[in-house]
Amino acid sequence: MSKLIQYGAVLLACFLLPPSARAEQAYPTQDLLSTQVTVTGEEIRYPTSGPARVTVSIVTILPGTIAKIHRHPVPLVGYVLEGELTVDYGNQGKKTFRKGDALVEALNVPHRGMNLGQDIVRILAIYLGADGIPNVLLEETPQP
């Protein structure tokens, strides 16, 4: 019976706390990123052309890999799980992202990632897209 009283007291205490305190105690969080713009300063816009589609991927980039120039027509939230990735945004410069970094990748700015280090890069990628819209579009490169 005493355990029942203890559980009841805990449950009652939870309901007596204000909602914000209940949420903090139930699910502690650590915000990694809160932004309204991409890494290149673009306003984040969600596609409205079809039903929403969220895709969650782990992107693995081997040492020495240089990606093809591409862009993302849908918002991409990334979190670097391991390694260090340098991204070339053309005339907007280069940025380096390391383990523990969170970012919203450029949308309409063509770019390419480069693993210039000796270790594998792994990124948790969350695409906030829509049916019928690819998450990545390769850019046409001029032929010599």
UniProtKB/TrEMBL annotation:
It comes from the Bacteria. Residues 1-23 form the signal peptide. InterPro entries: Cupin_2, RmlC-like_jellyroll, RmlC_Cupin_sf. Gene3D superfamilies: Jelly Rolls (2.60.120.10). Keywords: Signal. Residues 58-127 form the Cupin type-2 domain. The keyword ATP-binding does not apply. The keyword Signal applies. This is Cupin_2 domain-containing protein. It comes from Candidatus Nitrotoga fabula.
